[in-house]
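Ticket #246: bound-state structure for flavin-adenine dinucleotide.
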Amino acid sequence: MKIVVCINHTPDTETKVNVSQDGKSIDKTNVNWILNPYDEFAIEEALKTKEKFGGEVIAISLGNESHKESLRKSLAIGVDKAILLKDESERDSISVAKAISEEIKNHNADIIFFGKQSIDYYGEQLGIYIAELLSISVVSNVVKLEITDKKVVCEREIEGGKEVVETSIPCVITAQKGLNEPRYPSLKGIMASKSKQIEEKIPNKFDLLVETISMTKPSNERKRKIFEENQVTELVKILHEEAKVF
Ligand SMILES: Cc1cc2nc3c(=O)[nH]c(=O)nc-3n(C[C@H](O)[C@H](O)[C@H](O)COP(=O)(O)OP(=O)(O)OC[C@H]3O[C@@H](n4cnc5c(N)ncnc54)[C@H](O)[C@@H]3O)c2cc1C
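RESOLUTION: The complex was predicted; output attached.
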């Protein structure tokens, strides 16, 4: 089976991200970058699919030279081949999707895995755009996947429940937390990944359809609300629906 996994290189969740002076982008100084956490689930599912059906797993990332770190990590985890679509220019999600879909077309992929979302810009768009550009089906937020022959049965997480859907290969799957338990790179994998080549290509450019106007950090102001003894039901409702603590 020909399997592609798309990965992003994103700021570490522990990093305090600031807005640049232009007020439109992330200030990249002192930012620690990591493999996008949702993409670990995508890589794991890609490897499990290969282990079941045989074939090859190709990781693709579009971005600057630093994306090689996450591509190298994917190789250490077990991916067979890594491709960097090298670009630093301003891009919106659809322009990223068009460039990546052009590369995917070269590989005749049966299944393409994405994370549910990228933790940098929270777009949740790429997998869906790419399925459309390739004219294939997409199932998002997948927490369980069963592939038999060409049939693909997915359990999706939805508000307060789960939905089971069926599609067929070729398709795009976006991985939600819980889909699997991502494996760590082994020492042997890390050593082997150092000698593996990361193929570099220059992706095409496309017109931008969405422009960032401004970016701001949330205010540090804490919301306060005082409840009376007889408002326990309302308190529980707010903790559940707004604060989402349970
Ligand atoms: C070179 C470059 C320049 C950019 N410039 C700007 C800018 O100036 N202003 C701005 O606001 N945004 C910029 N972005 C961000 C861009 O607009 C998208 O937000 C970003 O590429 C991810 O799309 P998304 O947020 O829709 O991802 P999501 O749809 O949330 O990501 C879902 C999944 O798609 C995959 N994925 C995401 N990004 C990539 C990637 N780069 N390569 C491979 N797979 C990926 C991963 O599997 C991820 O889990 C830039 C991105 C790139 C790569």
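RESOLUTION NOTES: The longest strand covers residues 137-148.
TICKET STATUS: resolved
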